[in-house]
Input
Amino acid sequence: MAHRLGGPTHRSALDEETLTEELRALGVRRGGVLLTHSSLRGLGPVRGGSRTVVRALRAALGPDGTLVVPTFTPENSDTSPLYWQSVQGLTSTQVAEVRRRMPPFDPARTPARSTGRLAEEVRTHPEALRSDHPQTSFAAIGPLARQIVSGHAPRCHLGEDSPMAKLYDMGAEVLLLGVGFASCTAFHLAEYRVPEKPVREYHCVIRDRGARTWWSYTDVALDDSDFAEVGASFERSGAAIRTATVGRATARLFAFRTAVDHAVRWLPVHRTGSGRG
Output
């Protein structure tokens, strides 16, 4: 059952202490593992910006908690929707130039522009560790960070050989902070757990033995176009989803495993067509 909690209406910038209190009131638990998706714009003004938000999340989790964020990098792929949008209307010569300038993935340096300011704040934190997948990496801070990000197979975006399966097994929770279920990457794990899942080929630029090179691999055809519908069904299902206002944003907190299991039941019944990840 979804639980709507009360929350203050902020007229001034949030400080770390207030934000921490609101996250704890929502239900962020000490010692937990928290996969966070966020829109800092939706959160409203925060003193200290994204750095303060990371500090508040870590304070709510406590010293034994682990913060995890997606640090995806579609900018180095010619099979991503971002690439397709960027080359619309370009000549073949211009497209070739775009491809030539695509930087190879470097887990230590490649920014995660598409996943927002909070993800970048976590990625660049001196204590953060990042998984090695050249398209769908994750960054984490905390005692379980290394266990979560290690062993991310390069041919597995978000399946059994990725941090997603580990988050499922660890009993992680998901925080949607100012974003909706369309941003809920937990549902992607369900795409690997349904029967007759479609697959497709992906291409991206990597560095192999110091040389920039294009790499191709086959994986599940990812498709987030119906995740808002999956989320709406999840909310109607009676699952334990805590909802409150944090800052100026609507925040939802729920069990990673419960969300994945719901999507595993929903997708085979309601999804039609192949993925477009």
